[in-house]
Amino acid sequence: MLNRIRISTTLFLILILCGVLQVGSNGLSFWAFRDGYQNLQDVEASNQQRSALAQTRAVLLQASTALNKAGTLTALSYPPDDIKALMATARDSLKQADAQFKAFAAQATGSEKEKALKAAMKTHFEQWYSDLDHQATWLENNQLSDFMTAPVQASQAAFDGSFDAWQQDINQSVLRAGEASRTSYHMSGVIFGVMVILAGLLTGAALLWSRKMIVQPLAIISSHFDSIAKGDLARPVAVFGKNEISAIFASLKAMQGSLRETVSDVRQGSYAMHTGISEIAAGNNDLSSRTEQQAASLAQTAASMEQLTATVSQNADNARQASDLSKQAAMTAKKGGDQASHVASTMQEIATSSQKIGDIISVIDGIAFQTNILALNAAVEAARAGEQGRGFAVVAGEVRNLASRSANAAKEIKVLIEESVSRVQQGSALVDTAAQTMHEIVTSVTRVNDIMGEIASASDEQRRGIEQVAQAVTQMDQVTQQNASLVEEAAAATDQLASQADRLTGLVAVFNVKEHVEAVTEVGRSQAVPVVS
User: From which residue to which does any coiled coil extend (predicted)?
Assistant: First the structure.
């Protein structure tokens, strides 16, 4: 119930109660002071009246004494001057007594009894004053008999009786005022004690309320902050009531929920990042292995291309040599036509040259066969190289076609040579047809020369193509090495990123974000914050 009242309102009510107690205490103190002051005023007024009345009686006694002395001096026939002085003193005393009694009579009167006593005293004063005044008059007129028979003693006794009665009443009034002052004093003490007890009760209630409504909830809030600082985000924060402390609990609960969601998202993200990094690392390792295999294959291809380049270069040299021999054969055939007389020896030279040409053709045929095999190997390596070896495959196909053509040409030349040898063997019997045969030989040798020129040109093209393929393979090897370096750098970066992900996962793992219900002992300490699951 109390936790639904705002703390500021409660504090304001406490201040109002304190103010009421303070005002009440001050009011009662003022009442006691006023009562005491009134009693003091009454006592002071009584003392003043007593003093005035006592002085009046004393002055009247002085006047009576002066008149008695004057009467005695008159009876003894003393000088008139002495008597006049005493009479003057008596008259002055009477005047003073009259003035003082009037001052006494003018003072305020309290009770009815005091009024009655004052009225009786006035009557007795006037009687005593009148008797003294008559004595003075009689004495001034030398009426000693009247002076001596004046009832002054009786009027004085009556005045003294009323004076004593009034003084006794005044004393009782003073006693009553003192008793009232003591009663007021004791009442003030009792009221002060009650005020102290009420103030103590109010202070105790305020302390108990502040402990229940402020100190204990703030201690619970502090413990929640300590739990959050230690990484425990699962401890439930209960909100109850509608005061300022409850608003703090609500804000703390919202902050804890937001922090828990943030930590959960970061934890899930770190786990997902760790999984992705692991997959990237596995892919990098696989790519590194494949890149190494590709680099090894390219190295083998480069070695094969070097061998193929050497073979093609040798084939080109042989083709040039064959072309030179073909030219020489053509010149020889021309000379044979001019020197028909030397047919036998020329035929023998032709047979010898034909034999050499047959050997050269065999060499050319072997070179074409080897070129075909190398072209086949190059095509296989180009197929292994995939997309990057497509151009190399095209060049290898052209080389293979040229090798096939070279082989066919060599076969044709071989056939021609065999025919030439056969004809040379029949030369002796066919001298008549030597010119025609020599013409055919010149024609065949011309064809051989053309074919050998084509072979030489094809060999040059093969050499240039193979050099381009070798250059491309070298570039591919460089690119592959660069890729291997990049893969290694990527692997290193992946390892570093994985370590950072592990560190982030470890940092996030400190927080406990699972909900759990704790004991209600905490709420027992403060009714403002019960546990709500």
Answer: 469-496
Asked if residue 162 lies in contact with residue 124, where contact means CB atoms within 8 angstroms, the answer is yes
pLDDT score, position 515: 54
User: φ and ψ at 67, to 5 degrees?
Assistant: -65, -40
Compute the distance between CA of residue 403 and CA of residue 395 in angstroms, rounded to an integer: 12
Tell me the pTM: 0.37
The answer to whether the beta carbons of residues 139 and 71 sit under 8 Å apart is yes
**Contact between 350 and 358 (Cβ < 8 Å):** no
Q: Where in the chain is the domain with CATH 1.10.287.950?
A: 264-509
Output the six-digit token pair for 447. Answer: 């064809």
Long-range contacts of residues 515-520, Cβ cutoff 8 Å, at least 24 apart: 515/234, 515/236, 516/234, 516/235, 516/236, 517/236, 518/235, 518/236
Please, where in the chain does CATH 1.20.120.30 lie? 2-215
Name the residue with higher pLDDT: 279 or 9.
Answer: 279
Phi, psi (deg, nearest 5) at residue 232: -90, 105
Give the closest residue to 49 by CA, choosing from 127, 132, 130, 114.
114
pLDDT in tens, 254-303: 887 887 788 788 878 877 877 888 888 788 788 778 777 877 776 777 77
- Which CATH number applies to 264-509: 1.25.40.890, 1.20.58.480, 1.20.1530.20, 1.10.287.950? 1.10.287.950
Residue at 222: amino acid letter: S
For the chain, helix, strand, coil in percent to 5 are 90, 0, 10
**CATH placement of domain 2-215:** 1.20.120.30
> pLDDT for 183-193, tens place per residue?
777 777 788 78
